[in-house]
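New to this. Explain these tokens.
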Amino acid sequence: MFIRPCYRLKDGKRHAYWALVESVRTTRGPRQRVVAYLGQAAPRRRRGVKRAAGSAAEPSLLEDSQAQWVEVDARRVRLERCLDFGGPWLGLQVLRKLELIDFLEEIMPAGREDIPWPAMAMVLVLCRLCQPSSELHIAEHLYAQTAIADLLGVPAGKINEQRLYRALDKLLVHKEALEVFLKNQLGNLFDLKYDLLLYDVTSTYFEGLALGNPKAQYGYSRDHRGDCKQVCIALVVTKEGLPVGYKTFAGNRADVTTMEEVVETMEDRYGHADRIWVMDRGMISQDNMEFLREGGRRYIVGTPKGMLKKFQRQLLSQDWQAVHKGLEVQLVPSPDGQETFILCRSQDRAAKEKAMHERFERRIEEGLAKLEQACLRKKHRPVTIAKRLGQLLGRNSRSAGGFETDVIAGPDGSARLVWRRVETWRKWAELSEGCYLLRSNVSDWSAPDLWQAYMHLTDAEEAFKIHKNDLSIRPVWHQKEHRVDAHILVCFLAYVVWKTLGQMCQRAGLGDEPRRVLEELGRIRLVDVVLPTRDGTDIRRRCVTRPDDHQSILLHQLGLNLPASLAIADEKLTAV
């Protein structure tokens, strides 16, 4: 360590200040790190600090060589530069556990750039994890409000919108390598088997026309934003909800047309292991079923509601097996013996569907009565009444099959409405309420095991909820295709950190609550404590606020040690 002069212009005059610095090695080469600012130290004080810095014994760096204590003006003690610390610090610990930083430094070697691209990638991921926002907001506001600069050693003055955009471009090139690396790392860390793969598709919409992105198309919006263009995202996760990989498609792509491409991509990447694919009924078509069978792939899939009518006899039978209270299942082999159908009956689902049917039936009855009265009060053309009738049944389509309706023309040409209830539909509705059908070619599992495996699809649905609600993957503001793909990749990496933290919480006995842990530890701050001394020198220490009892328990359970302070980076003064 050594001392050096620094200069600052103040009131048009050049003032000299002194700082104690040490040389450190970084990925960008040797750098000088400020240990403490000495202010306008007198020559005697500077000599004492210089001797102490060169001594092998622990020095008293901020005091005269003969002194052990300094006098502080307690009335002028102040706090400066209060920054968000806990969330970025926790995210960085998870990234180190995943060894993702080392991997990025390996695949993105240092070049002539001022700031290494792996560090910029970490900025994007940590900001997406803690406070999701646009690259412009990160550059202009968010980065300066967090302690990421102190954690990564990237000064706030080096963060700008264009550098963040270039970091997105550099990161996207390594998408496949990142997916393979993270799949292997997660498997090693948490002993994952990858024997059950869950597949589902969602969409995310754009703000803007996105004219430069051919994937941006109008389609079925899960976000109820049919007025916006969108892209579709197909995601493959394990039964624990940990991601295996993903793929983006055009926004007007039908779900059933994505399955074959994604399955083949996963098999080319990870091999043709004996896996079981789990998908809902939206992914199933006759071509897809033949594709799964021809490749010798095992599957558990949902079926359309209409297939239940083929199993009316089984629904009436008593050969049901209880999985838990309120849920029963039974196996029904297919005639050719190649598949097994799993009939499922849920009491809670039956009560919900019964209430829905009754509500829609009541609305249809009230609407039909109003149409009858309208026909009696005034002459209407049959086409007018037929149009209103179609709108009524369309708004209540779940119970429309329970009514038989007809619009006829009277002797004077006016419309007359004739309708009646369909009792056979009502009986079938009562029988099938709460029932659904699965199909599988897994022959060595019991009915409860097959049902439980299919229920893991909720983990894939939960993954999409986390992407949309916690990581703000929507809306997409980027207009170019490669930037949109890079934005989704950053969200994917943040989701990996999220789920890794969730697994750490489970193993620590904290439940699967990464959201709560991030919120609790996110309240920890990094502050500069400024202590004015008698001789006019300000002692400045960059300290981490002490965790409360709840935060201390979380840190202890997770096996993490919070630093008490950080070294002060020299960002404002310029050395000569």
Q: What stands out?
A: The mean pLDDT is 89. The chain has three domains: 2-82+528-539+546-575, 175-339+441-479, 349-432. Residues 60 and 68 are 7 Å apart (CA to CA).
